[in-house]
């Protein structure tokens, strides 16, 4: 089963062609960037196709991160994945950025819980906590950083994601410090493909996952009467 996995949710543009049956990566590319995903993604996928010496008719499914993440970045990845799925008639599987971030450390050692945390700004985080076997201990949610620290400091844990260092800075006194803090992590498209292979497409739609409303809202007083 060949999966094309796409991630543009955060400060990187990444894609991978991965055969999940043999656990073999045919091609992968990850470029750090805060902007420019729209201009980068399609040429990147073209390079992967050339490197793997394959074409779209060999792809069995598409996987894409659905958030949380930047509004523009999410739209780029989702639009591309949906377009590819529509053109080929193949399923498109959407998976959360937080679950994709947590997958590699859980695969290394799942006896110690992993907290995936993303910086949502203004002392807020997007947080999800996973235990043994990928079991969800705390569902994906937006939280104040202090509330998040109190919620996840239940014993030895590992932190991953752009909000990991912020979370560690607010760790409650008297609780065991995090065993590791990986604040540089961005979703790995190979792991995105692996997660997609075991996901139910009917329960993993390619729709954006927003954990809070937009920061900018129209002012009622400025609205034109209709």
TrEMBL record:
Q: Give a yes or no for keyword Ubl conjugation in this entry.
A: no
Give the start-end ranges of region Disordered: 202-226
Its source organism is: Ancylobacter crimeensis
InterPro entries in the record, alphabetically?
ATPase_NBD, Gcp-like_dom, T6A_TsaB
Keyword field contains Transferase = yes
Q: Which Pfam families match?
A: TsaD
Q: Which residues form the Gcp-like domain?
A: 34-137
Stated name of the protein: tRNA (Adenosine(37)-N6)-threonylcarbamoyltransferase complex dimerization subunit type 1 TsaB
**UniProt-listed NCBIfam families:** T6A_YeaZ
What does the UniProt keyword field contain?
Acyltransferase, Transferase
| Any one GO molecular-function label of the UniProt entry | tRNA N(6)-L-threonylcarbamoyladenine synthase activity
Q: Known EC number(s)?
A: 2.3.1.234
The lineage's top-level taxon is Bacteria
């Amino acid at each position: 089963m060949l999966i094309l996995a796409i991630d543009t949710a955060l400060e990187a543009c990444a894609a991978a062609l991965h055969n999940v049956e043999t656990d073999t990566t045919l091609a992968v590319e990850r470029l750090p960037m805060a902007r420019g995903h729209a201009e980068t993604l399609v040429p990147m996928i073209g390079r992967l196709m050339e490197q793997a010496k394959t074409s779209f008719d060999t792809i069995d499914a598409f996987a894409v991160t659905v958030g949380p993440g930047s509004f523009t970045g999410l739209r780029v990845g989702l639009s591309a994945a949906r377009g590819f799925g529509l053109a080929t008639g193949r399923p498109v599987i959407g998976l959360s950025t937080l679950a994709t971030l947590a997958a590699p450390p859980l695969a290394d050692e799942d006896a110690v819980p992993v907290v995936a945390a993303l910086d949502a700004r203004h002392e807020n985080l997007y947080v999800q906590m996973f235990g043994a076997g990928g079991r969800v201990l705390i569902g994906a949610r937006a939280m104040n950083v202090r509330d998040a620290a109190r919620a996840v400091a239940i014993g030895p844990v590992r932190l991953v994601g752009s909000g990991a260092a912020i979370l560690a800075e607010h760790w409650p006194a008297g609780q065991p410090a995090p065993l590791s803090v990986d604040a540089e992590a961005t979703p790995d498209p190979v792991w995105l493909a692996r997660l997609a292979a075991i996901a139910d497409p009917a329960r993993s739609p390619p729709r954006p996952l927003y954990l809070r409303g937009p920061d900018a809202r129209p002012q009622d007083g400025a609205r034109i009467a209709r």
